[in-house]
Structures are given as structure tokens and as C-alpha cells.
Amino acid sequence: MTILSAHTALKIAALAYFVAALPPLLSARLSGAVRVLLVPGILANLLVVWLRYRQAWPMLPMHLGPVLLPLCLALLVCLLVRRFSPMALRAALFMLAMLSLAAVLFPMDFYLPFIRSLTPFSHCFVALGAAGRACFLVSSAHGLSSLVEAGDRDGKVSLADALEKAFFWGALGYALCTLSLFCGELWSYLGWGTPVVWDDATLLTTMATWFFYTCYLHLQLTRAWNPRGRGCYAASGFFVVFLFTCVPELGPFRSPF
Questions:
Q1: What percent of the chain has pLDDT above 70?
Q2: Most buried residue, 1, 117, 234, 245, by CB count within 10 Å?
Q3: Helix, strand, or coil here: 104?
Q4: Which UniProt keywords apply (predicted)?
Q5: What pLDDT, on a 0 to 100 scale, did the predictor assign at position 1?
Q6: Can you tell me the mean pLDDT for 19-42?
Q7: At what angle do helices 86-105 and 32-56 cross, to 10 degrees?
Q8: pLDDT tens-digit readout, 115-147
């Protein structure tokens, strides 16, 4: 018997993520506390994913993205907290708090699992997709840092360094999302006999995000825009990821009390 329900564990994770976002707001010197404060949220978030999978296994729990994305982002922030500039860290933690709040208020934890998901490609599709989107959010945080902190002598953040980090994480996220789409096409072909189900709105919005970052990599590699323009493009990635990959999976409003 499970002591905590998935939704209760999700609320604990969201609360921990909000608490972890407070120290960097008070002082950049308190960023070291973020790692410690994120651990309870990560453990609670892992419990949510495990509970949903346990209920659906070996099939795939539907609408896992809004729960899995905060977990992937929290793991990245926890592991790399020292490599974030103060502004990038604040931005990443703000995104984490907002995503976890959205998952609490608009959960889809009452739907049946996919019927045709016995192939491991289905699970790779979801896991790689969430990891790729988390990398996009880290890229967006560094893009915002390039706009706010670049040129600040006290912050010791150079425009080139911030853009380089934004590009690295954008490229890594792009690679992971490409692998995710490839696994999704194999899963679709094995289950439905076609590599693409065009009437799936979530798939189309995910591909829109992929094209957005295709353009971003093109801009970075060709230097078609000036550095500030590329920084703005990278920073806007958060809104693209949220609107195109998170919103389609959010359910109806549910009171947290």
C-alpha cells in the first residue's frame, strides 16, 4: 500500500522547487543551498513518475510530460548549479517552479494508459523528449543571461560565454528531441502501421518546437543575426516549449486543496 498518492507527492515536489528558488533571489552567494533544497523535490518527483508507471506498466502512462519535464530540469540544475550564472540560475529555477505549479493545478493523472506501448520505443520517446525539452529550458536560461548580465563587470558574464552555453544546451536538446521523434515514429509504425499519426495535436506541436530549434541552430552557426538577437531567440525558447509541448498535455483545473 502506498502512503502517498501521486498527486500528493507532486505537490510536495512543487513546494520543494519553490523553496529552492528562494535563496538565489535573496543573494547570489546562497546558490550553493539550491542543490540541498532541490533533493527533496527530486525524490518526490521520482516517486510521482514511479507511481504512474507502476500503475500502467508495461504500458505507457498518458500525459507524463508535465511531470517528467520538471524532474529532468531539476536534475540538470542540481548537477550543474555551479555552472550557472546568477541570472541563469534564477531563470531556470523560476521555470522549474512554474512548470511544477502547472502540473499540480492542471494534472492529467486520471486517464487510461496507451494500449499499444509494449515496445521500448514508446518509453524512449517520452524519456528522451522530456530530457531534450529540459535542455531547451537550460538554453533559454542562458539566453536570458546573455541579455541581462552580459557586460556586467560584477557578474563576470560575457555575452560570448552566455551564448556559447545557450547554444550547447540547445544543440544537446535538439539531438535528444530528434532521437525522441525517431523512437516515436518507430513506436507509431509498430503499433499503428504508420510512422506519423497526423491527427495527434501533441505530435504536431512537438514538431513545431523541433523546427523552432532547427532555426535557432541555423542562426547560431551562420551568425545571421547579431548576438543580442540570438540571445533573444534563445530566451524565447521557454515560451515555445511551454506553449507547444506542455500546454497540450495539461488537463482541466484542479484545486490543490
A1: 89
A2: 234
A3: helix
A4: Membrane, Transmembrane, Transmembrane helix
A5: 45
A6: 84
A7: 30
A8: 566 788 888 988 999 999 999 999 999 999 998
CA neighbours within 13 Å on the CB side: how many for 211?
7
Per-residue pLDDT at 189: 83
Mention every residue, 6+ apart, whose C-beta is less than 8 A from residue 22: none
Amino acid at 153: R
pLDDT of residue 155 exceeding 70: no
User: What radius of gyration, in Å, describes the C-alpha atoms of the chain?
Assistant: 18
C-beta atoms surrounding 233 within 10 Å: 21
Q: How far apart are CA 165 and CA 173, in angstroms?
A: 12
Give yes or no for a contact between 125 and 63, defined as CB atoms under 8 angstroms apart: no
Mean pLDDT, the chain, rounded, equals 86
